[in-house]
Backbone:
DNA sequence: CGCCAGGGCCATA
DNA sequence: TATGGCCATGGC
């Protein structure tokens, strides 16, 4: 059985640096993390394009809910997601829409705050923590579960249990490591595990091969 | 055509 | 704690 670190090294060696997340600004990152909930990134990006001209916290805050919902339709669940973006902005407004007023918060304190926002669950909170606030955290998403399961790991049921398992095994506070790890797992999941379940050519193919579909 | 994607909330038991 | 229904578009 490979360690989590060895899995990372193999993926990094094979796919190279990913340079995530594809967002130009923090607010784009945050909105994107909501738009992509249970949604293909292609669709989330289409929605993002439709609000490209108003991608500031102030502009989105001033936009009527109905217009926002209409614009982000391609991402699906658009009524709910529009509300979630608005709810996030209500929280963000308490800090005058200033990332720098929040960045110094302790990781777990900020995580609790984010989780208290309606529509921000574990994964969305962790994506924001990692890619907006530069906190070291492992994103224990569906890809991570699926891929590690295929590699033969026993994955604990709860989101946090899984996340903490990986973090303790890595015993690292290297933000760049977590950043790359998430990106690499998504890349691996997208490129290989769907079209090519045994990951031909990938150094991890022997581990993919033995496994069961999720 | 049917299936499902980088979730999260809520109701029920 | 743990399922199940719900939200919804677009790509394959």
Residues:
């Amino acid at each position: 059985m490979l360690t989590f670190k060895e899995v990372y090294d193999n993926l990094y060696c094979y796919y190279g640096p990913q340079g995530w997340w594809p967002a130009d600004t923090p607010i784009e990152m945050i909105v994107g993390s909501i738009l992509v909930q249970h949604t293909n990134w292609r669709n989330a990006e289409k929605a993002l394009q439709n609000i490209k001209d108003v991608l500031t916290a102030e502009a989105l805050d001033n936009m009527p809910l109905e217009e926002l919902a209409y614009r982000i339709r391609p991402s699906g669940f658009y009524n709910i997601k529009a509300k979630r973006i608005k709810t996030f902005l209500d929280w963000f407004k308490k800090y005058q829409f200033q990332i720098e007023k929040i960045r110094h918060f302790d990781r777990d304190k900020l995580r609790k705050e984010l989780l208290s926002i309606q529509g921000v669950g574990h994964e969305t909170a962790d994506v924001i923590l990692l890619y907006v606030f530069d906190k070291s955290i492992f994103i224990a998403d569906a890809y991570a579960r699926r891929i590690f399961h295929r590699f033969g790991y026993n994955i604990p049921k709860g989101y946090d249990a899984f996340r903490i398992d990986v973090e303790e095994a890595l015993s690292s506070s290297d933000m760049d490591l977590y950043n790359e790890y998430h990106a690499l797992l998504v890349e691996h999941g997208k490129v290989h595990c769907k079209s090519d379940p045994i990951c031909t050519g990938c150094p991890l193919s022997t581990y993919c091969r033995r496994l069961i579909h999720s």
